[in-house]
Amino acid sequence: MSDYMVSESSGPAAIRYRSTVVWIHWITATLLIAQVVLGFYFSDLPRGPDRMEVFAWHKTLGAIILLLAFARLGVRLVNPPPPYPQDFPRWERAMAVWNHRIFYILLIALPLTGLLAVSGRAEDDWVALKFGLALPAIPGVPKENEFGDVHEVLVFITIGLLVLHVGAALKNQFADRGPVASRMPPFRASRPAGPPTEH
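RE: above sequence
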């Protein structure tokens, strides 16, 4: 079955994402970077009140990222993303498409593995967050489990994908300067579209 995001094109011009998707994208990106920084900072802190405070923020941001991931997935299912412009090579389309899809998996898997890791030690079957909020703990998880290790591996995979994603965005904007850069504001193309390409 052909993937329309790879096989089809929007012609010489790029179709920009809907404003809802743009807002979710940039809010998620900001929170994700903050979450990575917070996670590494937390891991270096000695046990005590400061560590628990940072951990509470880490759990809270994780819950927000999970909600945003479901929101964006819902928007994507109702309004599928537009295909890429005609001069964006097929191999780059495929790389971009799968980079996004793996991101969706990670943005759901990261918070869930984090929740699994702390569920075994949750008090009263609830995982406390900031602002008096809480998430229901996942039942049946032992106090000592391996989900924290899985969570950590997923963090490093996410960092790798982030580097790839940002590098590709910068390439499209400043090296290629083609219309594909216009898909996600505030980026914009700085040269006209070239002829269709299949390489």
